[in-house]
Design goal:
By secondary structure, this protein is mostly helical. It contains five helices and two strands, in the order ααααββα. Keywords: Membrane, Transmembrane, Transmembrane helix.
Length: about 200
């Protein structure tokens, strides 16, 4: 029973993380609080991958809802046995959790690439990726951030928001991994009950 409650709590934790991923990804489209740069396509290309909105956001919300439903004892029994129903539900939960790892992993990778690449901004040579050849070294060199003159504080904006997306996606991956482990343990314990039953004299 404790393991089942634990699995249900893990599924519920995915919901606020997914909502925050959506919010953070949307904020990336407004580096100075204005929609001008998004409408004129003056944003970094990795912002348009919708990693926080779709993959660690909407799709993760759907997965979390399905996992929560599967954790509930509201399903009818299979025609063979009750353990059949539980095994199928747990197997589906494993598949969904693995998909969750894939979705959050995609978001983490894209966010990390966006962080390393740096923002698309106005430089002395025009609109360009000012830090594209620095392999992420600009993150530790604050003096180089002045290379971007527009949008205002775009470097700080991108670093903070992409970093938050990385953390949120990492937490989602970890939770989904724990969910896979929990469900596999439940499947094995349910499939081989003879190993945990005391011997009758």
């Amino acid at each position: 029973m404790g393991l089942q409650k634990c699995g249900g709590c893990l599924s519920c934790l995915l919901i606020p993380l997914a909502f925050w991923s959506i919010v953070i990804n949307i904020l990336l489209y407004f580096p100075d609080g204005k929609p001008l740069h998004a409408s004129s396509d003056n944003l970094a290309n990795y912002v348009w991958y919708f990693e926080g909105i779709c993959f660690s956001g909407i799709l993760m919300l759907i997965l979390a809802a399905l996992l929560i439903i599967l954790d509930q004892d509201t399903f009818q029994k299979c025609y063979q046995s009750e353990s059949c129903t539980k095994t199928y539900r747990r197997f589906i939960s494993v598949v969904l959790a693995v998909l969750g790892i894939a979705f959050s992993g995609y978001s983490l990778i894209i966010s990390a690439l966006g962080l390393v690449q740096g923002p698309y901004c106005r430089t002395q040579a025009g609109w360009d990726y000012a830090f594209k050849d620095m392999a992420g070294r600009y993150l530790m060199d604050r003096s180089s951030w002045s290379a971007c003159s527009e949008p205002t504080y775009v470097v700080e904006w991108n670093i903070i928001l992409f970093s938050i997306l990385i953390v949120l996606s990492g937490l989602q991956m970890f939770i989904c991994f724990l969910k896979v482990i929990a469900e596999l343990k439940r499947i094995l314990c349910g499939t081989y009950p003879v190993f945990v039953q005391p011997a009758l004299i």
